[in-house]
């Protein structure tokens, strides 16, 4: 917090540091730091009528006080009021000041939750006030989210200072507020920070309260305005139009053993139309697992190459990047095109040779991981960037690649379908293409939920599938805390399966292996020399082995829905009927039960994504911690769809007619976050 703000709010450096832990750095941040809950200190409840388990305020005379030493040292006082009720007040941590405050004969007020104790009704660590020297509160008392060393009275004082010191004038005109039936901002904020006693705690926690609706609308409007402006900025940017001759695209299509589906053809046409514009494309290509996004990306890349430009193809993991490299090489080298591979673990000599070929323009297509971001990788004429599983990259990384060729066309691919509400909000600056049909040769996958106590039966299923000439994956549980533990589990699983199924050839891939080792095991599996592949979740995206018809996932209850759906999509790519077995261990949490129910009942990625959003919220769904997307603090996309629609319409109107309002609104709501916009 800068010194000027500290002076305004009358806070010292130590308090400013603690506020920074809550991401509170300006008076406006303090104003938006809304209470978690409220305590009602506006009236007194007779002890005899006070409810158990609900916070309340009672008043009475201290009739007894003692320090007890069993089972541990504690201060216990008894109070009695006019209703004849007696209440015990218990303090496990106490100071001499407490003893003084609770001296026999004193009249005090206690605020807390009553519980049934061993000696009768009691409050543990209640808030104590002298009844004679303090008056009753005139509004409900807010309880704010806080950190160690910042108590509630201090926070209340700072929030009040912020409310009194910064202008809370409305950025939105009265005519608009009247039409949307929304209250003024200052009125809404003051109500939520200090609600009059006529409001119940339940009313205040209800998102449909007009004051909450106003804050949610302002937040959604700021997001819509920033997305629309980012889009306008992009459209006004300069990028070379890329018109392909069709020379190589036609050759590749003729060589493919399959024809494109109608959905693939439609999406490819949308991408090519965008690439012909004089401004940069920002298109998100969505398709469920196995819908054939890679060939669409390859044909888009050929359009850029035909137009004389280079293409960068980037994936979040080495195994996926390697898969893309193998596919692109298989498709492009017969056409006489050069495809280079760049990864962090590559040997120095090979890496240097590839970098030189990229900067000299000898290589038309570069495929890789984050190694494509390094400052010393230079393209001669980068025209198109293809980012696979784009939500798994941080914004800074995406910017770094985008800046390699100044303004370049971007095609982002995702097998995690984005529900409509997210497409309208967080991805409103992107054009979205959806491949909404699977290739005709895909076989439906049967999903089974099996308790891990029946593991031997599942091993029998694996043996049966392999005896028919098919192959199987066995995925080990994800252990995020420790890669070493992950490796140990995978190795143990391999040994257990080798003991149980000695007649099968079983291989292992895990995250700690060198790329060359991993590639060798994958090659063995693809060629059919291995019957079973034991793997950590490195195989979740992009691995394509048509002969694999059985997927076993251990400890499925530990995994997210998107991950389970991705893993399940690794089978069902050939002619054989495929199954996915989800092994789970009890007891199951409510969250795990909800996830397993969704994955068992649905195979449509969009429906799974929609349910996932409901279960987890957009922050988790988007991987907010690393994506840098300004998360919504007040609005809930599923609940506030109507407000989102209104914010979209209002944003378009304001940009066209009232740029002054747009600027004022964005300054207030997004001043510290504009670096992320337009990515």
UniProtKB/TrEMBL annotation:
Residues 457-614 form the Helicase C-terminal domain. Keywords: ATP-binding, DNA damage, DNA recombination, DNA repair, DNA-binding, Helicase, Hydrolase, Isomerase, Nucleotide-binding. It is an enzyme of class 5 (isomerase). Residues 274-435 form the Helicase ATP-binding domain. Its EC number is 5.6.2.4. CDD domains: DEXHc_RecG (cd17992), RecG_wedge_OBF (cd04488). One of its GO terms (biological process) is DNA repair. InterPro entries: ATP-dep_DNA_helicase_RecG, DEAD/DEAH_box_helicase_dom, Helicase_ATP-bd, Helicase_C-like, NA-bd_OB-fold, P-loop_NTPase, RecG/Mfd, RecG_dom3_C. NCBIfam families: PRK10917.1-1, PRK10917.1-3, PRK10917.1-4, PRK10917.2-2, recG. This is ATP-dependent DNA helicase RecG.
